[in-house]
Design a protein that fits this description.
2 domains, 5-stranded parallel sheet, alpha/beta
């Protein structure tokens, strides 16, 4: 049987090396290449389009969400499995709505990764029990008017980093952006959410359980 081809996209060398080893241990998957940024995917795809893309959400430069949307537009045949350190209630629904066929936390066991890959390569969606619960709750809630729902994908990502207690400098370094650009995102977030201060923003994050893992954000924005 012909092996299904896979490309890995994660900005951490050790993670990519570990993923390559795990994926190739499944036997009938071949890793074509691994890259550290979304921008590096497109020259690669022009040469050979893979069956599966394992895509990290937190990438330098363009976020995984932005990259996913472009891939869906240009290469809709690629089955994208989103990988993240964010719990499912943070980004999963956004990624699924953007076209990912599945979403896995990076702490997932290799067997779960294998099951997810085999599911999506058949044209199906891999939806965990937790994600199913979240999607049902999403449909049941009348909360589409919550302020954070109006944020763009990048603004939402910055909001979550704020929820982790990261400073503007740390966020800029993580996203490979200037501090001025990150500050602009923060200003837009405050404006869209109709909040007046960073303290208000942190309180909102806590109120709506947007802090990763339920941890309290540290208010240390510079």
């Amino acid at each position: 049987m012909e092996k299904k081809t896979v490309v890995l996209c994660d900005d951490h060398n050790i993670v990519r090396a570990g993923l390559r080893q795990i994926v190739e241990s499944f036997g009938d998957f071949e890793v074509l290449d691994d890259v550290a940024s979304g921008e590096a995917l497109f020259p690669l795809f022009r040469k050979q389009t893979p069956d599966i893309l394992l895509l990290d959400i937190s990438l330098p430069g363009r976020s995984g969400l932005e990259v996913l949307k472009q891939i869906q537009s240009m290469y809709p045949q690629v089955a994208v499995l989103a990988l993240s350190m964010y719990p499912e209630d943070q980004f999963a629904i956004r990624m699924i709505k953007a076209g990912a066929r599945g979403y896995l936390h990076k702490d997932s066991a290799p067997q779960i990764l294998e099951d997810a890959m085999r599911t999506i390569v058949e044209g199906k969606q891999y939806i965990s029990a937790e994600l199913t619960r979240l999607m049902i709750e999403e449909m049941a809630k009348d909360d589409n008017d919550l302020p954070h729902k109006s944020l763009s994908d990048r603004e939402y990502e910055v909001l979550l980093y704020i929820g982790e207690g990261k400073t503007m400098t740390e966020i800029a370094n993580q996203l490979s952006l200037s501090i001025k650009t990150v500050s602009t995102y923060r200003s837009r977030i405050l404006e869209k959410m109709r909040l007046k201060s960073n303290s208000d923003l942190v309180k909102y994050i806590l109120l709506h359980d947007l802090a990763p893992g339920g941890s309290d954000p540290v208010h240390k924005l510079d």
